[in-house]
Design brief:
- By secondary structure, this protein is mainly α.
- It has one domain.
């Protein structure tokens, strides 16, 4: 078999479990950027909210939100969790289906 055929038929299917795990962990890791954004732009998200992320919105809601801040921030945290979990689950299932089909 030629080199491209060997890659597509043998090597890529063997690499798909690792690619799936890396994809899911990278997606989840992208939401953990709060510390860098807060260090560079503060709780405002930089000039004009240019660096605003979901974690920073949660922080602002919890600590600058007023009387019902804890309830609102908890609801926001649950929505963020549900979004991340749902998308990670969909990605995992799609990659697993592709792995089984190959």
């Amino acid at each position: 078999a030629s080199a491209p055929r060997t890659f597509w038929s043998i090597r890529l299917p063997l690499l798909m479990p690792a690619v799936g795990v890396i994809t899911v962990l990278t997606f989840i890791g992208c939401f953990n950027i709060f510390d860098l954004v807060y260090a560079l732009g503060g709780s405002d998200g930089g000039p004009g909210g240019a660096m605003d992320v979901l974690g920073l919105l949660y922080y602002r809601t919890a600590f600058e939100g007023g009387i019902n801040a804890i309830g609102e921030s908890s609801a926001l945290a649950m929505l963020i969790f549900a979004f991340i979990f749902g998308v990670a689950l969909v990605i995992e299932r799609l990659l697993r289906r592709r792995e089984v089909a190959a």
